[in-house]
User: Which sequence fits this backbone?
């Protein structure tokens, strides 16, 4: 690394799952550059996730909301960071605006993939070989390695989030929860859109099957997932709806108490993987070829229909068969097998 090799700035991604996967980059940098201090510039919501990554020295709140250029704010922030004397910046997003802060911060080496006219803003431009780097995590880690390193990168560390045992006990008391019966967590939301969400009625049916085997079900999600979680809890006896009742740090600690999670392709899926949970992951319009849960403890359900993956928010054909054809009975069998394995 050029300049002050002991200090690096990473411009992080804007989605929960992507930020969890970025932990592989942070860990890899620490392994390859012992003693390095990594600061991460990212949206305010990501602070609680980054706080569970010991490799991250400091979170810097991006003062501009997602989708806004905010040129003046970015210039001001960049100038204010000049005193930090970073030796290198790694810019994960491929947008023009993401490269502005490192440029105005005067960071001598600014690394990122070629994107929206970023010549000059970045001076260590990499070509993104999508065939050599099909997975998102591979792309992140490759940015932290030498430009002439072999692709795809090998020995990629997996994300691992710290769990706060004291907070777990606090949450159990605060939310009147018990772990006397084994817990299966459901993550029925997916902020991207309906084409990534397994039907709520299927989740409710699965909850009944699991309850019949002695398991309790906790529903996880943000306030935006409240409607689908409420639909499931209304139909499923004793399913505990935690949507909108926990921040990300609390969700990390509660998810870590589960025996298994059933989840759509979502940010919470990656949190579950990073806390070592058993996972049954349900893929619709997306594909596990790009963003799989980074764990050996996942059973991935992906039908791979002729129309898949379409990556659309809504089914362009109107039938949602990529999710509708995944039956609750099949998912239940997978849950029991996965629990018995571990």
Assistant:
């Amino acid at each position: 690394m050029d300049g002050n090799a002991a200090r690096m700035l990473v411009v992080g991604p804007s989605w929960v799952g992507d930020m969890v996967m970025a932990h592989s980059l942070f860990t890899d940098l620490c392994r390859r550059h012992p003693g390095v201090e990594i600061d991460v510039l990212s949206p305010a919501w990501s602070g609680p996730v980054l706080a569970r990554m010991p490799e991250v020295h400091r979170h810097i709140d991006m003062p501009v909301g997602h989708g806004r250029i905010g040129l003046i704010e970015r210039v001001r922030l960049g100038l204010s960071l000049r005193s930090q004397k970073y030796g290198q910046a790694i810019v994960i997003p491929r947008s023009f605006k993401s490269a502005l802060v490192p440029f105005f911060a005067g960071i001598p080496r600014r690394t990122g993939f070629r994107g929206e006219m970023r010549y000059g803003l970045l001076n260590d431009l990499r070509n993104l070989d999508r065939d050599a780097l099909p997975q998102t995590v591979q792309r992140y880690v490759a940015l932290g390695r030498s430009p002439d390193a072999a692709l795809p990168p090998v020995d990629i560390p997996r994300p691992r989030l710290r769990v706060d045992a004291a907070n777990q006990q606090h949450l159990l008391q605060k939310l009147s929860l018990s772990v006397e019966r084994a817990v299966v967590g459901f993550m029925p939301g997916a902020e991207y859109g309906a084409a990534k969400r397994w039907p709520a009625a299927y989740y409710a049916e699965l909850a009944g099957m699991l309850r019949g085997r002695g398991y309790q079900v906790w529903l996880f999600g943000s306030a935006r997932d409240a409607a689908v979680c409420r639909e499931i809890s209304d139909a499923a006896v004793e399913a505990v709806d935690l949507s909108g009742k926990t921040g990300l740090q609390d969700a990390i600690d509660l998810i870590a108490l589960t025996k298994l999670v059933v989840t759509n392709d979502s940010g919470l899926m990656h949190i579950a993987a990073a806390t070592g949970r058993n996972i049954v992951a349900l893929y619709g319009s997306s594909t596990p070829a790009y963003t799989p849960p980074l764990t050996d403890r996942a059973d991935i359900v992906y039908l791979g229909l002729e129309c898949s993956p379409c990556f659309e928010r809504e089914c362009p054909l109107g039938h949602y068969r990529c999710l509708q054809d995944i039956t609750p009975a099949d998912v239940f069998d997978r849950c029991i097998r996965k629990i018995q394995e571990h």
Q: What stands out?
A: The chain is about 30% helix and 15% strand. The mean pLDDT is 95. Residues 7-143 form a domain with the Rossmann fold fold (CATH 3.40.50.2000).
